[in-house]
Amino acid sequence: MKKTIALLTGGTTGEWVVSVKSAATIAQNLDPERFDVYKIMLTEKGWFYEPADSVKIDVDKNDFSITVNGKKIKFDGVFIAIHGSPGEDGKLQGYFDMIGLPYTTCDALTSSITMNKGYTKAIVDGIKDLNIAKSVQLFKADYKPEEVTENLKLPYFVKPNNGGSSIGMSKVKHTDDLQAALDKAFNEDTQILVEEFVEGREFSVGVFKTKGKIVVLPATEVIPKNEFFDFEAKYTPGATQEITPADMTQEERSRVERVVSAVYQKLNCRGIVRIDYFLEHKTGNFYFIEINTIPGQTATSFIPQQVAAMGIDLKDFYTQVLEETI
């Protein structure tokens, strides 16, 4: 019997554009023989379903249902494709937990913690073979730039603590440029993280669970033409060289799989996540960058590339994710 799935997209942050593109990829690859899919848009103005031949239909938030042509439609589960708030920070997960509706992502606690880069690093610190760049966490209400200059060595990466898609992020090579970078990040968030630069190769790898087993997808090496992997590099075709599967030694591949599986487990993840990391040039050490609990699924995103490199059809992949979580 077919499952009725709500594909939830949009959001209330600058990442909503990416969310809409991700949902388009997912919608094209959900098995129509197994799932009846309704794309639900969430914006600051409301939550609604917009059929091609009709006006917007508001979602009843009491039970997350819609009424189409006099028929009330309730969902068996929700495929959350919202990057940023409220899809990736635990707010929607808490709502769905309260009304008893299953969803495809990490739970509310994991989602809210992992949106904060500083808190996440504190939790994964201690995993064998995982290293963390030295950093300073600043709060907008009470901070001093000297906390950075006195504790960290140049260059720095300055990033919003609760942001995504590299929005508000800067690389600082000179102390004179620090304040402008802090202002840019504080425009996006009240907390920011400033890290020492790790010189190394940058990678991104998808992890998911199927039939109770953690599966690590083939990693992607990221070689941006820009100074670093910023928003433009992430979402502009041709702005970044992306090599999937990444060229790593067997030892590196095995170590990475072991480390990211441990991260997935320690953070109590569900569904598809993406973990970004460096392999330091001089040592080959693994440096954790961040985890994305709702990674992009656009035409230029890593997860579809990695799924293809593993020899899995996207339709089968999304079916496995839905079967595991919903």
UniProtKB/TrEMBL annotation:
Transferase among keywords: no
Gene3D superfamilies: 3.40.50.20, ATP-grasp fold, A domain, ATP-grasp fold, B domain
Chief localization: cytoplasm
Molecular-function GO term, any one: D-alanine-D-alanine ligase activity
Keywords, ordered alphabetically: ATP-binding, Cell shape, Cell wall biogenesis/degradation, Cytoplasm, Ligase, Nucleotide-binding, Peptidoglycan synthesis
Cofactor(s) this protein cannot do without: Mg(2+); Mn(2+)
Reactions listed under catalytic activity: 2 D-alanine + ATP = D-alanyl-D-alanine + ADP + phosphate + H(+)
Compartments in which it is found: Cytoplasm
Residue span(s) of domain ATP-grasp: 122-323
EC number: 6.3.2.4
InterPro entries, per database record: ATP-grasp, ATP_grasp_subdomain_1, D-Ala_lig_Van_CS, D_ala_D_ala, Dala_Dala_lig_C, Dala_Dala_lig_N, PreATP-grasp_dom_sf
PANTHER family: D-ALANINE--D-ALANINE LIGASE, D-ALANINE--D-ALANINE LIGASE B
Family statement: Belongs to the D-alanine--D-alanine ligase family.
Name used for this protein in its record: D-alanine--D-alanine ligase
Protein source organism: Pedobacter montanisoli
Designated gene of the protein: ddl
